[in-house]
Amino acid sequence: MKIIGGAAAGWPLAARAQQRERMRRIGMLMxxxxxxxxxxxxxxxxxxxxxxxxxxxxxxxxxxxxWGANNExxxxxxxxxxxxxxxxxxxxxxxxxxxxxxQVTRTVPIVFTGALDPVGGGLVASLARPGGNIxxxxxxxxxxxxxWPELLKQIAPNVTRAAVVRDPIAAGGGGQMGAIQAxxxxxxxxxxxxxxxxxxxxxxxxxxxxxxxxxGLIVTQNVLAQLHRKLIIALAARHQLxxxxxxxLFITDGGxxxxxxxxxxxxxxxxxxxxxxxxxxxxxxxxxxxxxxxxTVLNMKTAKALGLQVPDVVRLRADExxx
Length: 323
Fold this sequence. Notes:
CATH superfamily of the largest domain: Response regulator
Radius of gyration: 23 Å
Number of strands: 12
Number of domains: 2
Helix content: 40-55%
Structural class: alpha/beta
Largest sheet: 7 strands, mixed
Number of helices: 14
Order of helices and strands: HEHEHEHEEHHEHEHEHHEHEHEHHE
Oligomer: single chain
CATH architecture of the largest domain: 3-Layer(aba) Sandwich
Shape: elongated
Mean pLDDT: 91
Strand order of the largest sheet: 7-6-8-9-10-11-12
């Protein structure tokens, strides 16, 4: 009887331990393709964030990935596949992937890692009180855009004209363009937009702009510019146009200089929201947060190819210099 009683007494403890270690399921919708060179670092940052909060992939949490292949049309069926797996929570990496998930479910919690304009894009009611089943982290603050004309002028003082490569219909595009236009005259820059909807628009527009003298480029943060980044970088090199970019990935592909948020940091921080929601908090009560970590990355090989003498003020502000 003592043995039976001891076993029975032990069951509640075992049951509680089993409950604590119940496998939770996360569905993660990446906008990029599975073979995108930047995807592993972002996935690893999210996994590291989970680990910091006691979630170990394979022990008490499972992450199912689907890939949008850099295409909104591909993201929609991928979103449906993830929701069909009945996850406890979903993670979206862009505004478009977040919308794709929202179209499938209004009940499963969603955390986004890089929406450019969560309110304007219709994802949340407000930054402070998102409402609904979704919250997350913005990909940019518009004030950052105002730094790009300054950086362009610092690294290429002779530039007096700047073409702003943008997606005219993207959420957040208007805010970035407005911030650039507001400060450009104070740096002696005349700015004009170049739409980045497809390669057929980008190439002739940059070619026509480059016929003038003292020109440079400012590339805004948007998905289409990232998709066409190798073309934009190649055109900037061909036409000898100094260019400022919004993210490090442009510089590792041969761009001149970037200033912007560190995307992997938002992935790591998103794990904190995932943890809080899995422990019972509601997305509606968790405010959308702005990026907190920014970096300047400089490619000296590209600077030399453009014949630029990089001033100390740019070198000193660089967090990373690619030789």
